[in-house]
Automatic annotation (TrEMBL):
Name this protein carries in UniProt: Nudix hydrolase domain-containing protein
Gene3D superfamilies (alphabetical): Nucleoside Triphosphate Pyrophosphohydrolase
Cofactor(s) the protein requires to work: Mg(2+); Mn(2+)
Highest taxon in the source lineage: Bacteria
Molecular function in Gene Ontology: coenzyme A diphosphatase activity; metal ion binding
Domain Nudix hydrolase: 15-163
InterPro entries (alphabetical): CoAse, NUDIX_hydrolase-like_dom_sf, NUDIX_hydrolase_dom
Record key words, sorted: Hydrolase, Magnesium, Manganese, Metal-binding
Keyword Hydrolase: yes
Species this protein is from: Corynebacterium riegelii
Secretion signal, residue range per the UniProt entry: none
Amino acid sequence: MRPLIDALGDPDPSEPADAAVLVLFTGADQGDLPGSVPESLPEDAALLITHRHPNMRHHSGQMAFPGGRIDPEDRGPVDAALREATEETGLERHRVTPLAVLDVITTGGSRKRVRPVIAYAADPGEVYPASEIETDDVFFIPIAHLVDPSKRLKVKFQRWSGPAFWARCYLVWGFTAGVIAKLLDAAGWSRPWDHTTRHPLDDALARSCNDER
């Protein structure tokens, strides 16, 4: 994780945010791997992802990081991201080590100002759809899967285009895919992939099991 955190730089703490998401990595500590290279990835390195319930009012059926609105009672974006992750996935916050808070990113559809919180858990324990109203699937995507060129594509909708990933039968796109792509590049984990061909978003979603409405 050190190359990734070093590459992210220092965020602007004064910029207000409406929401926070938890970008949780897991995998063996490199210090526990004799002879390992710091830049290499442990085989079990993975990233936590959720599938939003198709009956949700907003962003239904989309793949997302756990997260949500920063409430007045929260002690900032880290506290909000951890609280939301516990509510949505059953993740126990004592297992999680927050590492960095990114600059605010404004989402394309709802125009919400979101701060991603990068974190690590060597042993995240069991995760599951703890709030079945919000999520109906929760799992870890292997980083090896995300960097596989055959699982990456670029999608387009009208004048917009952006990166996307196949994860199981789901299509990860939009804000979530953009954050993942940025982090893979920053950490130096990305492998060359076809980012010149732009696939219609509707066609890709029709092939997925997102059930976006």
